[in-house]
Amino acid sequence: MRIAWYSRFAKTASHFCGRPRVFAIAVGIILVWIITGPLFDFSDTWQLVINTGTTIITFLMVFLIQNTQNRDTEAIQVKLDELIRATKGAHNALLDLEELEEENLDAFRAKYRVLANAARAELDRGFNDTGTPEP
Fold first, then answer.
1. How many CB atoms lie within 10 A of CB 10?
2. Which pTM was predicted?
3. Closest CA to 73 of 92, 93, 89, 97
């Protein structure tokens, strides 16, 4: 795999950057920048240093975060698909639902909204809301 290095890098960088220690380092850098403000007379260059640094870091982190988010979402979808597939009575039509067009997804959502409303009505009448509502 040609891009496997990027996935490994993104995962490692994401785990590293999400640690409290890295946050503390970032806060420390900001504090040093603030403290040095009077030394540089709060000049435009002084402001440009922090603006440039934070912009570059933010720009790069967006791609790393998006990569890890996409991978996590795909893994969750596969796990959910397996649960649907392995559950007796589950609707296999729900497998890979995230790939449907918006109109089809809305139709499924509407169907389940009706089921949820019916279950809430049953709860209000003192019945259980567990089980399969279909025969």
1. 19
2. 0.66
3. 97
